[in-house]
Amino acid sequence: MRNNHTEVDQKIGKRFHLVRRHLELTQAEMAAICEIKQSMISYIEGGKRDLPTNAIQNLFLKKNISPTYLLTGGDNMEFNKPTDTQISGKIKNMEADIEILKAEIERLKTPVLK
User: Which SMART domains match (predicted)?
Assistant: First the structure.
């Protein structure tokens, strides 16, 4: 019998494993969340079985794990988690706001001449 599992299956399995480790779950706990048999976890992680749709859905609904991350590696692991670029942009905006506020504080400290 020929092995029909591809490099894609291997990559999905690796991401599935990384998600489980990130969530600090045992295989039994992951199986319960995904509503699949525990014996399937190692097969999925090893790229020897397809990741069932219901497992993807359950990880999203129960643990906020991005289906896009699981299937393609795109997106963040956790759904709606900001990217580093987004965080950097927000920090720069906050720094600019702080500078504006500092200038306003100094302006308010200056006595008004009558």
Answer: HTH_XRE
**Are the CB atoms for 69 and 15 separated by under 8 Å?**
yes
* Phi, then psi, of 46 in degrees rounded to 5: -85, 0
The amino acid at 103: A
| Segment 52-110, tens digit of pLDDT | 999 999 999 999 898 888 998 887 777 666 677 877 887 888 888 888 888 888 888 77
Question: How many helices (H) does the chain have, and how many strands (E)?
Answer: 6, 0
Angle at 43 between CA 27 and CA 31, to 5 degrees: 30
